Amino acid sequence: MMDALLAAALAYLLGSLPFAVLVSRAMGLADPRSYGSGNPGATNVLRSGSKAAAALTLLLDGGKGWLAVWLAQRAAQAGWLEAAAVPLVALAVVLGHMWPLFLRFRGGKGVATAAGVLLAANPWLGLASVLTWLIVAVFFRYSSLAALAAAVFAPFYALLGQKLVWRLQPSLVLALGAISLLVIWRHQHNIRKLLRGEESRIGSKAKAAGGARKPPR
Q1: What CA–CA distance (Å, rounded) separates 180 from 64?
Q2: Residue 55 pLDDT > 90, yes or no?
Q3: Which of 97, 145, 162, 178 is the residue whose CA sits 20 to 30 A from 113?
Q4: Domain contains 80
Q5: Does residue 18 fall inside a structural domain?
Q6: How many helices (H) and strands (E) does the chain have?
Q7: CA-closest candidate to residue 122, choices 161, 96, 85, 150
Q8: 72 and 85 in contact (C-beta within 8 Å)?
């Protein structure tokens, strides 16, 4: 149990790395918390006008989710961790992104990190979820709607493919369901904006976040 909790704590710290802020700072861009939605994530970084920064943020945010679960899986296979630690790690790395220690617990919505977790859990499951995001994003041009669709369908994909395409731990399937619920919950503001027809489309120009709001120091 202590090993599992330690692994989860390390995954949380990995998830807490604010790559949107770090990449923007390294590339001389404005803090992503100061414009657009104020969300430290790849979609909001795209509003800075830098596709390279957005792509790098997406890769790193997804990569930390994948790396945490992949390492936990390898450790479990080697007998260094109990298999039950893998779902805890999967949940912890997403929680780290959503409520990061390094940003005073004001993080992103966890979409890219959750996608990385799904890809590590099973590449086909991750690919199905990513394709769902892409299809909705291409047709409707709303990142939030695409994220919500992927979050809704991912647990169903996991259940439908269980024992037919992949064999996931039941506890990992439950963890993936919990992650999907968290992603949906983190999009509650976007859901209200979508219903009002006020949600920004992918590629829209950056505006100051919330008017005069400034990022926390």
Answers
A1: 17
A2: yes
A3: 162
A4: yes
A5: yes
A6: 10, 0
A7: 161
A8: yes
Determine how many CB atoms are found less than 10 A away from the CB of residue 1.
8
214 within some domain: no
Contacts by 53-59, CB closer than 8 A, 24 or more apart: 53/23, 53/24, 53/27, 53/29, 56/19, 56/23, 57/19, 57/20, 57/23, 57/24, 57/112, 58/112
Counted domains in the chain:
1
201 lies in a domain?
A: no
Which of these, 68, 102, 64, lies nearest to 85 by C-alpha position?
68
Distance CA 1, CA 16 (A): 22
- Which residue range is the domain that position 158 belongs to? 2-196
**What is the tens place of the pLDDT at every residue in 92-139?**
999 999 999 999 999 999 999 999 999 999 999 999 999 999 999 999
How far apart, in Å, do the first and last CA atoms of the chain sit?
36
Residue 199 · residue 140 · CB < 8 Å: no
pTM comes to 0.92
Contact between 103 and 21 (Cβ < 8 Å):
yes
